[in-house]
Design goal:
heterodimer, A: 273 residues, alpha/beta, Rossmann fold, 6-stranded mixed β-sheet, 10 helices, 37% helix, globular, B: 263 residues, mainly alpha, 2 domains, two-stranded antiparallel ribbon, 11 helices, 68% helix, binds adenosine-5'-triphosphate, binds magnesium ion, cell membrane (chain A), nucleotide-binding (chain A)
């Protein structure tokens, strides 16, 4: 069984007047250790899907299993929230305490971890996100990228199997975005933590194991980055920006120029020269 | 501008004052405030000022920083002073002009009240300057915890305070930003009479409130996703623990307070 199994899930917001559910017939598996990227235009249901993974919402129809635990079963809620950590878009609105170390400790404190063990976890988590030495800092004195990495550390300290990040880079400058992406990639590659990364920056999908394209509450495509980026026209139809290199390659291909599958400018340069 | 407000913002230092248990510090501050209200001589105030000086030196926080925290209350203090000087009558007439007069009683009470306010603010800001917000709220939670039996949600209250303290700087920063944005569009916060000025604050407060509510929503989600479910079963990174010098400090303060009150 995969780490995350989503079977025939629909979700309709109670207070939503439209007839279209926020999610319709979602079927998806995410394997342990994978780096999955979800892309989709505004309102396509990405955040709703993320909230379903950590039981902030439960499906209106269908079932979700997180390492075999059904999210519909209320007894599983806290176990699942420990296994699936969430990082949100706005770095300011998810830090609870006035000091970095107290914030990172918040999750383990809620889990009832003994205090000496919390100390170890906090220091380790901060080190893993490259924020060692910032223990005593106040969150409002940090840059956006640093705050977001503290938020990630707060999740890591709960020792989850999977982290879901809902557009963690959307409010950051390029430098902050780079820091956060490097941290997330490091955690996935070196620490074996499964990552579900939601973004509207296509470039952030190039290294993924699985890319999921969502549109209007449905999964439009899923597959490897290369197979997804082949679908230039379909992606443009749903208002997604494709990396320039991918687009150029596709147009060259149409002109009958032999180009292998490429994802980045560097690969394009190599292919052409 | 708003960002400069520093009353009681925690300053981390490695000192014995910082190391004292938060609960003891809260109790000590309470005792001192009560003692402050029992004294009625300037020599008593002098004693308290000397005491504060010693504590500040021990805390390794620069005196300048402590005094800077008094700036925001300066207006209140001057106001009190003027009210007393001009309105409290009695004693010798020091100066008079038409119907206005300054009498010695007024000057005395004015300075008396002002000293008291300054010392009061210094006591409380020493508490918050040397105690991290989390320890402070943990301390309050502990002191309130006997009331849990009567349905007082001590842990939740302390969580609320923690969050409030966490968001004060963020909201001040935001208020500053909104103010500048409105000023750039020609809003005027500084001129006009009191009513006009209060009115001009509306375009500042409305967006601030809306954003605060949005933040609260986001934060609630973030807390829930990090397994927060109330105070029950929560552990702490920094468990509060009494050490022997906490009690020594308490005993010293009790003796001092009693001595000053009866002196
Ligand atoms: N709390 C809510 N109540 C009612 N409807 C909602 C709520 N949250 C989202 N929706 C609706 O559900 C749909 C999917 O929203 P969702 O936030 O999941 O999209 P998204 O892909 O995350 O978009 P974005 O890129 O803007 O973050 C939208 O049509 C939205 O209007
Ligand atoms: Mg979203």
């Amino acid at each position: 069984m995969s780490l995350i199994e989503i079977n025939g899930v629909d979700f309709l917001y109670q207070n939503d007047n439209s007839d279209r559910p926020a999610l319709q017939n979602i079927n998806l598996q995410i394997e342990a250790g994978d780096f999955a990227v979800i892309i989709g235009s505004n309102g396509s249901g990405k955040s709703t899907l993320a909230k379903l993974l950590n039981v902030l919402l439960t499906p209106s129809k269908g079932e979700i299993f997180v390492s075999g635990l059904n999210t519909n079963n209320r007894d599983n809620t806290w176990k699942i929230r420990q296994k699936v950590g969430m990082v949100f878009q706005n770095p300011d609105n998810q830090l609870v305490a006035s000091m970095v170390e107290d914030d990172v400790a918040f999750g383990p404190e809620n889990l009832g971890v003994p205090s000496s063990e919390i100390r170890k976890r906090v220091d380790k988590a901060l080190e893993m996100v490259g924020m060692a030495g910032f223990q005593k800092f106040a969150p409002h004195k940090l840059s956006g990228g640093q705050k977001q990495r503290v938020a990630i550390a707060g999740v890591i300290a709960m020792e989850p199997e999977c982290i879901v990040l809902d557009e963690p880079t959307a409010m950051l400058d390029p430098q902050g975005r780079k820091e956060v992406m490097e941290t997330v990639e490091y955690l996935n590659r070196e620490k074996g933590i499964t990552v579900v990364h939601i973004t509207h920056f296509m470039e952030e999908a190039v290294d993924a194991d699985q890319v999921i394209v969502m549109n209007q509450g449905k999964i439009l495509h899923k597959g490897s980055p290369k197979s997804i980026f082949r679908l230039v026209e379909q992606l443009k139809d749903v208002n997604l920006d494709i990396p320039v290199a991918v687009e150029v390659a596709e147009y060259l291909r149409r002109e009958k120029i032999e180009i292998p599958d490429i994802l980045s400018i560097d690969e394009l340069v190599d292919a052409l020269c | 501008m708003l960002k400069d407000i520093t009353i009681g913002q925690y300053i981390a230092r490695d000192s014995i004052i910082h190391a004292l248990d938060a609960r003891i510090k809260i109790i000590i501050t309470t005792i001192l405030i009560i003692a402050l209200f029992t004294i009625d001589t300037f020599s008593g105030f002098g004693f308290f000022s000397a005491f504060i000086l010693v504590v500040v030196l021990l805390s390794k926080i620069s005196i300048k920083k402590v005094l800077k925290g008094l700036k925001p209350i300066l207006i209140l203090v001057l106001f009190t002073l003027f009210i007393h000087i001009f309105l409290t009558k009695g004693g010798q007439v020091l100066w008079s002009w038409k119907f206005i007069s300054i009498e010695s009683e007024g000057v005395y009470t004015g300075f008396f009240m002002v000293s008291r306010i300054f010392i009061l603010i210094l006591f409380t800001s020493l508490l918050t300057l040397t105690t991290s917000p989390l320890q402070l709220t943990d301390g309050i939670e502990y002191i309130l915890s006997p009331l849990k039996r009567f349905g007082v949600p001590a842990s939740e209250l302390s969580m609320m305070m923690t969050i409030a303290l966490r968001f004060i700087p963020t909201l001040l920063e935001e208020a500053d930003k909104i103010m500048k944005a409105q000023q750039a569009r020609g809003a005027d916060f500084e001129s006009g009479n009191l009513i006009q000025r209060a009115k001009s604050l509306i375009p500042l407060l409305v967006p601030l409130f809306i954003s605060a509510f949005r933040r609260a929503d986001d934060l609630a989600l973030a807390m829930e996703s990090r397994c927060y479910r109330g105070g029950e079963g929560r552990t702490r990174l920094h468990e509060l623990e009494f050490r022997y010098y906490d009690f020594i400090a308490l005993i010293i303060i009790v003796i001092l307070a009693v001595a000053v009150s009866f002196y």
